[in-house]
Amino acid sequence: MFTSIAIIGRPNVGKSSLFNKLTKSRDAIVSDFPGLTKDRNHGFIKLKDKKMLLIDTGGIVNQKEDIQEAVSHQAWLAVEESSLIILLFDGSENLNKEDLDIIYKLRKLDKEFIAVLNKIDKKSESLIDEDLYKNGISNCIKISAEHSRNLNLLKSHIETKVPDALINHPEGKKVAVLGRPNAGKSTFINNLINEDRLVVSEIAGTTIDAISVPFEFDDQKFIFIDTAGIRKGYKYKHKVEYFSFVRAVHSIEQSDIVIFLCDATEGLVDQDLKILNMIIENGKPILFALNKIDLVSKKELDDLYATKKMQSEFFLNLIKLEISAIKKKGFKRVFSQTNRLIDLSQKKFTTSNLNNLLRKFVSINSPPTVAGRQLKFKHVHFGGICPTTFIIHSNQDKKIPNNYRKYLENSFRSNLGLSSIQLKLIFRKADNPYEGKKNKLTERQIKKKQRLVKHNKKQKK
Length: 461
Known about the structure:
The chain has 14 helices and 17 strands. By secondary structure, the protein is of the alpha/beta class.
């Protein structure tokens, strides 16, 4: 099982605040108004060498209203699929029936949980400690999510509780295959490796898990990861579909490259763009493959390429291949491009090469002035992979115009052949070597300065 942690509790105990603090984000909306979180929200929490999925849930209540019952149902689905549960209580209030019901149900599910008392910064006469002790919970961690109190203690406790085993894949270059349901992902892998390893059906959504398929080509080992198709509205569907999406996210994170399959018969839709954006956020290279081209005419294919979505700057920077998974068309190009992009995405660029390119770009298109000062770039160096990162030192960092940032990004991308590779430029303000260093005048210079001041005053009179 992949490692995921669910935060549960009744409404307004601070689940979203804790989620934001642990994931170092603002993805969950925080408000004093109870019951604001309706759907499961997910993000990643990093603890030393471990990276885990954290799931924020809506408040669990006993009400039979449709919306409240649905919210509670969503929260319990998250519990069933998670390795560890953070059970959050409001430390400023006494234990109530809703809290007790959650404790009893967790025990019935035989789920390991950490009891956490939030809002300890609030003054109150709550006896929640004693109430929990009476109900068999003695080791509570007391925190204040809003003021970040004792969060490190909670993190260290989580680290000792989560299982060490994550998704383990055999050795080889890891290639995740993503796309919407019925885009032909399983057919593509089956025909690529000449084996019927994966179930293929015309029914969309046949694959519900992330399946690893080892394969060797030209003496190189690959691991193909077939993922469930991510359809629109996955958050609101059955738990199997939601956690199929979660496993797909894990597959992206663990892969060296993502092959994105788009159904040429249906064209590019908004859901495709959402999946692609998810891959970009993980910094992985993308090989865009139009599948089922045997079912479309040349005119239909040309019309697809002429659409606004395909003509956007983002798609112009992607390597696009035309394939037919069922007829094994275009497979050689897929392999050669996959191999090349993996090597390129992991390449470390030398500082001298990057600086030569930066000087060239600046000489072709001079930097603009910012707040009356000429924008000057000192030097650039390599910063990391996935995404490929270049760190540029200049006399400005935040005020660099977006059009010039884009110019530099496009110039680096085209000169280094970084099509389909995620590129990130970080601008840092270079330190002024003379800042805070004022030359001290000698005694003779001080006297000379005083004489000049007196002389100037006399001249004015």
